[in-house]
Batch of 2 targets.
Target 1
Amino acid sequence: MILGALIRSVAYALELGLYGLIVLLVLEWLVHHLPGPGLNPVRRALFKASYPLLWLGDHYVPLSLGTLDLRGLLVALGLWAVAKGFLPWLIWAGFVWNG
């Protein structure tokens, strides 16, 4: 009984974390392409927060079309696929574990 609830709780926490990372990556990509020097502190903070994920994207899916860099969006798409494809099964397994 307790193990099923623990599995579900971990899955829900992972889902929340993945959606937070997706929002961070998309926001970083959007702010990066907005003009103006007034957003430089925001750009810098978002880049520092999302750098590990951007590094993964740079090494595994280095896709850019001219000056348009798509690595952050592709990593966000991959995280979204994990959140929509794997985590519901983990939540379901938590319910099944209870019986």
Note: Helices lie at 2-32, 40-60, 71-85, 87-98.
Target 2
Amino acid sequence: MILYHYSNQDVEVLKPILGPTRHGGEDLKAVNKPVIWLTTSSEDIQDNQPKFRYTLDIDEKDERLFEDRPFNSTMKDMVNFGISSVVIKWFFYTSELKPQKKEVWNGENYV
């Protein structure tokens, strides 16, 4: 499964951390635990766009990969109610990861 991690940190290996941007509705398996947040979205455009996009290929059966079920359920509901047209899923990973690809934001795209 291809997943993405967005960050302002320039690293060769992603390490699980406790981050300040976590949300209150996250999966209980991630609460107060260091994790790496991953998404299916290759176009996570934001006001303060992260400088780096890391691409990872992770086996769906990897025991260290967990779906953020509460958040993904909310995202699915948003599509069902017509609030969003794209289903974005979030996952978290509990060990270090070496990305297959690192791209830099150039102001318009990741290259």
Note: The two ends are 21 Å apart (CA to CA).
